[in-house]
Amino acid sequence: MNKLQILIFCGSSLLLSFGAAALLYPHATIPQKTLESAMKPQAMEDLPDINLGDNFGPVSVTDLVGYYIDHPPKPVTSTAQREQQFGGC
Length: 89
Description:
It is a single chain. By secondary structure, the protein is mostly helical. Among the domains are: 30 residues; 32 residues, no CATH class. It contains three helices and two strands; from the N terminus they run H-H-E-E-H. It has a two-stranded antiparallel sheet. The protein is flat. It starts with a helix and ends in a 19-residue tail after the last helix.
């Protein structure tokens, strides 16, 4: 290959990539109204219930936050290193 063919190939590849990006960009964005509503904080009472499966069913966000406040996660106090196992043959 000579230098002209290499430059033509690289240039056409770049143009094709930018063209595909320009055509697909509108499909990858979210509407402006959705973006604006996502930027505003919402009250947890206004959020829909969350389904936690068959064992718990739908639970309100208020109940979940209350449970988290009453039962915070325990801090990690273990400094022991995990035993590394050899995974060879």
